[in-house]
Write a structure and sequence with these properties.
It contains 12 helices and 14 strands. By secondary structure, it is α/β, with parallel strands linked by helices. The protein has 2 domains: 5-63, DNA polymerase, domain 1 (Orthogonal Bundle), CATH 1.10.150; 69-360, Alpha-Beta Barrel (TIM Barrel). The strands form 3 sheets. Strands 3-4-5-6-9-10-11-12-13-14 form a 10-stranded mixed sheet, with helices on both faces. β12, α9 and β13 (293-297) form a beta-alpha-beta unit. The two termini are 29 Å apart. Bound molecules: iron/sulfur cluster.
Length: 361
Amino acid sequence: MKQKTNIHSLTLEELKNLAIKLGYPSYRGEQIFRELWFSARESFASMKQIQKGFKEYLEEYYSFEIFQSHNILKSSDGSVKFAFTLFSGDVVESVYMPSASNEDEDEGKTSRKTLCISSQAGCGLDCKFCATGTLGLLANLKPSEIAGQVKICEKEIGEKITNVVFMGMGEPMLNYTNVEKSIKILSDTNITKISRKKITVSTSGVTPGIRKLSKLKPAVKLAISLHATTNGVRDKIMPINLKSNISELMNSAQNYYKQTKTAITYEYIPFKELNDSDEDAKRLAKISKRVPSRVNLIPFNDISFTSPVGVAEELKAVSDLELQEFANKIRSFGGVVTIRSTFGRDIAAACGQLALSENKE
Ligand code: SF4
């Protein structure tokens, strides 16, 4: 039997077209969209404004439940980690971070409710510092499963999510179509749930995906996981660099800025005695000055629970003091730098940590 499409995978435009196809005015499609994403209905039956006949059609041809189940872990710092079990049995994670950090200086510092969401179960890119990478690629998430993380999180915490970052499990650009659709669902240009300016897509450097994303209007923010300033080091810790090296990546970033006029963020984990030298700081500053952008330094999350081998085993975190000193060095060379706050250390909030244990079970 053909699997039913989940209703949460349909964009506003698709729901309006469906209404028209069934002989209803297009605003009936918009009502369904609002019921799904703004009234957070939990079943077709609970959708109050929809006519009986339309609901019966939806019941027959579409599924409603987004996930099989989900678990929640609350941290003492206010962050919340969600582990969502897909109907395939694979587990993905989201992390809710309620407070302002110093990552986005042009926004208010007190009102942000950020959700870090996943776009794939596992990941095939094998970055050596990442627990998710050790799983390999298990599944591409559907639009309902990507945007649905926001819906379930809002229901559980009783707060509206204001910012979304695609920095959870998976490489968004390798599930591009579904990621773009989920952005359109969360941020339709007619009924905006979350502003595009408050959605960030993070990539490890899949340049064809960056090109595609640059055409999305209005634009979202782009973050690039850089983590090295030379191809020699990046080749070792991020195998994607063998496909698109740093100079190709910089050209893509430059093109993204040209097309969108949106500043770029370079994510960078300084590893002890690998990529944290004065020369690295100088190169980072130079990179970050090509187009308006900033470097976001991220403390390394311990991945010893993955039993790392080879290069991964040799990666060591810098101390908090060394992190600050590295930031100051980049600043001294003229770069703009922020340091990411760490969340949920008491609830295994490192990307992939919870999902890794559940997927392995
Ligand atoms: S860092 Fe991102 S792209 Fe790299 S393996 Fe982890 S999830 Fe995949």
